Amino acid sequence: MSSHIQIFDTTLRDGEQTPGVSFSFDERLHIASQLEHWGVDVIEAGFPASSEGSFQSVQAISRHLKRTTVTGLARCLKSDIDAVYEATKEAVSPSIHVFIATSPIHLTSKLNMTEAEVLASIDEHVRYAKSHFDIVQFSPEDATRTPLPFLIQSVQTAVDAGATVINIPDTVGYTYPQEYGQIFKTLSQEVKAEQPITYSAHCHDDLGLAVANSMAAIENGATRIEGTVNGIGERAGNTALEEVALGLYVRQDHYQIQTNLQLDATKQTSELIARYAGLRVPRNKAIVGRNAFSHESGIHQDGFLKNPETYEIMTPQLVGVKSTELPLGKLSGRHAFQDKLKQLGYDIDAETQKSLFKAFKGIADKKKHVTDRDIHALIQGSAHEKQSAYQLDSLQLQFVSKGLQSAVVVLKDHANNTYQDSSIGTGSIIAIYNAVDRILQVKPKLIDYRIDALTEGRDAQAEVHVRLQLGEKEVSGVGFDHDIIYASCKAYVEAASQLASPPTSSKEGETA
Ligand code: KIV
Ligand code: ZN
User: Fold this and answer.
1) Spacing, Cα 302 to ligand 1 middle (Å)
2) Is the pLDDT of residue 506 over 80?
3) CA of 470 to the centre of ligand 2 (A)
4) What pTM did the predictor assign?
5) What is the pLDDT at residue 311?
6) CA 204 to ligand 1: nearest atom
7) Are 18 and 276 in contact (CB under 8 A)?
8) What quaternary structure, including any partners, is listed in this protein's UniProt entry (predicted)?
9) Where do the H-state alpha helices sit in 76-176?
10) 284 CA distance to ligand 2 centroid (A)?
11) Range with the lowest mean pLDDT among 106-110, 184-188, 342-346?
């Protein structure tokens, strides 16, 4: 076994394929900076050929990062490879990840290609990628459902064409540890290469085995592990990198392997992804769940108080769980607020800080302790409002009769034009959403609505997520407020704004 494992983070690519997750440009940049701070070796920043947005953010991340290798995904298409080249060429260490499926079901049902055609495509496109990049990673998609002889042939073809990193995706989360480990062993024995090859593991969690399979790959020669923070990703998600990292650390006696990760930045990284993805970390999640370091039973508490090691195999401090947090309150001034922003890792311009401080005072009036989560929500909420074409200006509700509510909603755009309409509905949220639909002249289907309380207690802020569908298009929005009704309206306005025509100066229902 090697003594060092590279950590390849694909939160911004495979992680963003989580249903309902879509990071904004600023969020992607912030996530990439946090991943660099955490110490990952490679960031898969996106799939540049898939959209202009992905291209722009891979390019911005490449320009911004100081140490980390930045890679982008490409199908076996010259135009995809060109897009990755253009997007990553300014990175300190650019690389490319080229893939094509190799399993019989993908060849016949998806690609409509023969094995010979797939091999020719691998040869042509890996060679083409190699003419642009020093480091080319190749993935035979659905490798674990590919017959071993053809998998070896595909990998040999990629290596002969210049790939120096071979990634083995368990695309559908189908394999089990012993089988997956054996694939790595066989490839390292069978594939002939003039240059050293890095073998990489990429697992999905459909059977809950992604981390176990990744650990088995390490035991059989993999020196790179791909995954995401909190294990987000397609369907059941990807390998949770924090679990691999802590597994290696806590069981150093067995693995004797180091990573470059700053383990005490793990919790902070997890919280950032959870916030931006709008996916709460389950309480019982390994390493980063809230219960991971709490002890409930009397026997456990007694043992823990006598010696923490009786029931704790790692300390909360190891992963950066803070035991104390100094909340702000109504008497906290501008300086305390600025210090808190700095401490939480935000670099915010003076103008935005002014409006955030005003909003902070508004929260502090309603809440005794303004926690770090409240501050994060404040900043996230203001960023969402900034990027939305319309924002909530004011809202009035009135009970009509027999459960019917009436809502008057006023929205405003960035030029401060206001737009007003009213509607009724069987409940306050429906009445509000109907009124927003009338203003924006859209009628989407509400396919997801979720409320989270940001902190404990009756005075907690609410975080509401909505997902809307109009024809083929799905969009989402998030709203934060002390009041659930306002948070629900803000979330809906952000989502529905993406379906509406952009604001014009003369809109029906306009009042100013
Ligand atoms: O799961 C998968 O097969 C992938 C590839 C693109 C590597 O994400
Ligand atoms: Zn994947």
Assistant:
1) 46
2) no
3) 28
4) 0.86
5) 80
6) 1
7) no
8) Homodimer.
9) 78-88, 104-106, 115-130, 148-160
10) 24
11) 342-346
